[in-house]
Amino acid sequence: MRIHSKFKDYYDITMAHGTDDHIQYIRNKKTMAVQELKAYGGKLQRSSGDDRIWDTIGFCGKTYPVLRMEFAKSMGVTKTHFCYSVRDIDKALLDFDPKGQKLESFHTKYRNVGYWNRDFNATDVQKFLDKWHGSTYLENIFTQHKVPIFTIAQPTVGQKFPRGMVKVVYNDSLREYEFHKVMDAYTAYQEIEMYLGGVLGNGNPEPVPIEDKYLAAGKGFDKWSFRKMPTKRKK
């Protein structure tokens, strides 16, 4: 697969080992504001607080919920973690609170102490991920827009999006979402190549019908190949 793009993504490194040009991926980003989609048994974006937001990665027919966790660090710097598992969340919480108080609260079911919401605990988050991680719920988006990748996110502070709308980016970069936590570079590249060539049909063009006589000639046969050559009659 050969990728044509103005930006680099984490799986592009696989092309260094050689490419098969019969698959072409025109990776042009397209951003749209769309009516908030419904999935996950309710709103697509399950918000767990202003600094804990569920975004969605669409990858080759499947969707992967990702928890975007933003913590204010010193000097006004904000650090963002993208979490695809309870283990990822544990690491993010320890980075934010090395003493482990937030981590302990996260693993205590239904402990409602100020900062944490009742729905933000390890047990419920694990159930949510078990049900929706790798789901085909939104597979129609891939085929409708002819893309192997899209992301859905709530607008960040400062972005002007109408109320009730979400930001969808087709052919988005997965590096910023740390998608390598879900899939390594080689596997991601192979999955995209197979999805483009299979489901989306972006592979070799359909063969043009060729008459049998031309096919035979191209293989070295002529009109006498399966007949007895004529002989001269004796006088």
Share of helical residues: 10-25%
Structural class: alpha+beta
What's the average pLDDT?
79
What string gives the helices and strands in order? EEEEEEEEHHHHEEHH
Blueprint (SSEs and pairs):
Layout: E1 2-5, E2 24-27, E3 30-35, E4 38-39, E5 42-43, E6 52-59, E7 62-72, E8 78-83, H1 86-96, H2 101-106, H3 122-132, H4 139-145, E9 149-153, E10 165-170, H5 185-197, H6 212-218
Parallel strand pairs: 1-2
Antiparallel strand pairs: 3-10, 4-5, 6-7, 6-9, 7-8, 9-10
Description:
The chain is α+β, with helices and mostly antiparallel strands and 235 residues long. Helix content is 23%, strand content 23%. The chain has one domain. It has helices at 86-96, 101-106, 122-132, 139-145, 185-197, 212-218, and strands spanning 2-5, 24-27, 30-35, 38-39, 42-43, 52-59, 62-72, 78-83, 149-153, 165-170. The strands form three sheets. A six-stranded antiparallel β-sheet has the order 3-10-9-6-7-8. A hairpin with a 2-residue loop joins β6 and β7. It is globular.
